[in-house]
Design brief:
Shape: elongated
Number of helices: 8
Structural class: alpha/beta
Helix content: 40-55%
CATH class of the largest domain: Alpha Beta
CATH topology of the largest domain: Rossmann fold
Radius of gyration: 24 Å
Largest sheet: 5 strands, parallel
Number of domains: 2
Strand content: 15-25%
Number of strands: 11
CATH architecture of the largest domain: 3-Layer(aba) Sandwich
């Protein structure tokens, strides 16, 4: 599947050259010549990368970049500009650009930077896919963070481990012994009622105040996490 690139450039000849080169390399492309048009196409499409001229009629490239970043923190943006001062470059990068190309540039270098940005973005998407999501519940295993409906849920380490185990087996009923062995460890010799206690803690934090419960009790068997 080819990557989709939005080319935002008000100089028609430059935009056409870039579009021809990218199309030849196998990319799908569209162009925009103003900041307003760029934002309209950004919101209507799914883009893998955006080439963004800084000097645009109407909305400037920096303002377009700011608005893009308020909606999407991952899509890579490479700024294109005739300004080559360090201040301009730093300003662009501080606004959320991934890279900066000074005009005139060699198309081979632009293609190399596009490939580099796409590789980096692919790694970021892979990391995000490590998150577990069930309905509006999101679990970031790496950061050990939990949100539901965008609201942060504060959990103790044990509560997080319990939720993670349940989330790794969605729609599956897990009995107390299974939960104890995985969350507390095989060498745990305490009362199995500890599972019930922590389930109550967890349910109060992640289901209380929401219209649909996600943590369910299957009487006589165990517990399960499902939409």
């Amino acid at each position: 599947m080819s990557h989709k690139i939005l080319i935002v450039e008000d100089e028609e000849k430059i935009a056409r050259v870039i579009q021809l080169e990218l199309t030849y390399e196998g990319y799908e492309t569209e162009t925009a010549s103003t900041g307003t048009e760029a934002l309209d196409k950004f919101h209507k499409g799914q883009w893998d990368l955006i080439l963004l001229d800084v000097m645009l009629p109407g909305l400037s490239g920096m303002e377009v970049l700011r608005r893009i970043r308020s909606n999407d923190s991952i899509v890579p943006v490479i700024l294109l500009t005739a300004r080559d001062s360090v201040i301009d470059k730093v300003n662009g990068l501080d606004h959320g650009a991934n890279d900066y190309m000074t005009k005139p540039f060699q198309i081979e270098e632009l293609l190399a930077r596009i490939r580099a940005c796409l590789r980096m973005t692919s790694l970021l998407y892979q990391e995000k896919q490590l998150d577990i999501q069930i309905s509006d519940l999101r679990i970031d295993e790496k950061a050990r963070e939990v949100t539901r409906g965008g609201q942060t849920i504060e959990l103790t380490p044990r509560e997080f481990d319990l939720l993670l185990f349940l989330a790794q087996h969605p729609q599956q009923v897990l009995n107390r012994e299974q939960i104890l062995n995985d969350v507390w460890g095989f060498d745990y010799y305490g009362d199995t009622n500890v599972v019930d206690v922590y389930i109550r803690y967890l349910r109060k934090k992640m289901d209380h105040g929401f219209s649909k419960p996600l943590l369910h009790t299957v009487r006589g068997v165990g517990y399960m996490l499902k939409e």
